[in-house]
Amino acid sequence: xxxxxxxxxxxxxxxxxxxxxxxxxxxxxxxxxxxxxxxxxxxxxxxxxxxxxxxxxxxxxxxxxxxxxxxxxxxxxxxxxxxxxxxxxxxxxxxxxxxxxxxxxxxxxxxxxxxxxxxxxxxxxxxxxxxxxxxxxxxxxxxxxxxxxxxxxxxxxxxxxxxxxxxxxxxxxxxxxxxxxxxxxxxxxxxxxxxxxxxxxxxxxxxxxxxxxxxxxxxxxxxxxxxxxxxxxxxxxxxxxxxxxxxxxxxxxxxxxxxxxxxxxxxxxxxxxxxxxxxxxxxxxxxxxxxxxxxxxxxxxxxxxxxxxxxxxxxxxxxxxxxxxxxxx
Amino acid sequence: xxxxxxxxxxxxxxxxxxxxxxxxxxxxxxxxxxxxxxxxxxxxxxxxxxxxxxxxxxxxxxxxxxxxxxxxxxxxxxxxxxxxxxxxxxxxxxxxxxxxxxxxxxxxxxxxxxxxxxxxxxxxxxxxxxxxxxxxxxxxxxxxxxxxxxxxxxxxxxxxxxxxxxxxxxxxxxxxxxxxxxxxxxxxxxxxxxxxxxxxxxxxxxxxxxxxxxxxxxxxxxxxxxxxxxxxxxxxxxxxxxxxxxxxxxxxxxxxxxxxxxxxxxxxxxxxxxxxxxxxxxxxxxxxxxxxxxxxxxxxxxxxxxxxxxxxxxxxxxxxxxxxxxxxx
Lengths: 329, 329
What we know:
2 copies of one chain form a homodimer. Chain A is built from 11 helices and 15 strands. Chain A is of the alpha/beta class. Chain A has 2 domains: 4-80, Fe-S cluster assembly (FSCA) (GMP Synthetase, Chain A, domain 3, 2-Layer Sandwich), CATH 3.30.300; 84-328, P-loop containing nucleotide triphosphate hydrolases (Rossmann fold), CATH 3.40.50.300. In chain A, the strands form 4 sheets. In chain A, strands 8-9-5-10-4-11-12-15 form an 8-stranded mixed sheet, sandwiched between helices. A 3-stranded mixed sheet of chain A has the order 1-2-3, with helices on one face. At the A-B interface, helix 6, helix 8 and helix 10 of A face helix 6, helix 8 and helix 10 of B.
């Protein structure tokens, strides 16, 4: 006769349409009761439209009555907010203050390296006026959902993603909004998206130290911040403003990472400094946090991002960055 | 006997302390009356503190009584707002939507190339949370001024500059403000700074399409916008949002300029595309505006920016860009 644990395991194989993550990973399984040969399963209905609920009812009944000794299955839905269903261990913001230093790239690479090591990872794209994440992962199409919540999109390797660009009719559409509206959307991405169970939710912040970063720091329970920068002193100056903001808001900086650190000449293999000598050691001291890695300027990365294939990227640098990130957390 | 015109010419050689631009260029000369051997000069007192007014009174009297046939000089001050004194022919915003594509660099290079051709140029740094302009020009120290106005800083070649970083105790200090306050500062930079007479005021916009660009487009009488981008398709997508914003706000896009277009390998002189193939032609079509130029990735530029010596930069590209810019305007 099947146990409650076995029922739960079987539900971990039922993928929710539109999300393509399982009922268990989305934290929709609220209760399992076994009595005699009958199993009663209670599911949360958040972010599920009526058709999806019907489909799940039939699918779950089919899966459970296929288990040893279970003859009858009763499937009920209860209301629960996405906010109470979300069970996220670490929320980490990727910040730089300066634009174009590679926040979105670092967010993507961090997510990728964690997912490869078996962690459940999501990305909340808080850059509402300049969202880059869906493009890098090659994600198009509107997220599923209902009046009670939005399903995140899922990348090829299984990273959950929510970005304003998934909700716009065209990816080039401008979002011409003032701060309060932008703050509201970020809050919605946090509260109304069914993230489910995650080890890490990474937040890709926009440049600057104004509305969006302020809303993220005041609204989300951040475990820490990763600071991204490039070797240019001019960029480093603006990045130090971000460091100061994090410190003022009492959010621990868990590490710093340098992007566009160097460039390997394709002909000679010689390493040159395109944007000046590395600021890595100095930035680590200024931020009071470890240096987690240094990434080169690499035309291959630019191409992978443009083609929506960032998940194909792999390198020695990424591997040791992941080690350092996990150690810092 | 000296004419009114000669008096005006002599006043064009009196530099206002703290601004280092002349009384005439700052548009502070309100009236000149000649009767017999007496000249009466009326100056506006905006942005001048009492000591500066006293110094100017003595200096102007000295200069005028040195002219042929003038025995007596009377110098009066009248109140006038900086807003009514400012006489600016063209206000042009440099925009990209995306951060880190080189807006500030393009703003600086445009200013530089126009100043070299004899135009009077100013830069209003509207990037309040990530200001780069003072650093590039090597400008430190607080601007002069009084209760009635702020004097812009002056670069080595004579470009007027106003940036929040000139008003902060330390250049790394974070400006952690929400949109309304940022909008207010930008409006002050427009209304309360004594720009005087300028051919071009260039506005360096922050990334995004939110509060700051919106305030600039709604408050300043823009003649047009220059769109900056890099070859990466990901960046181009975000830049198209900026193009759409300009179009929605009915502000003409005067031209587009590609930065980080290519890189010349130092060993072989071979030209490679670090961030993908040029998007210049496509962007010009999308924006419905001419391509004004293409600039390479150049470690020398990065160094000049970091050292505050951007004004030493010169190149064939910059020269033809200036031609194209003036033609487009």
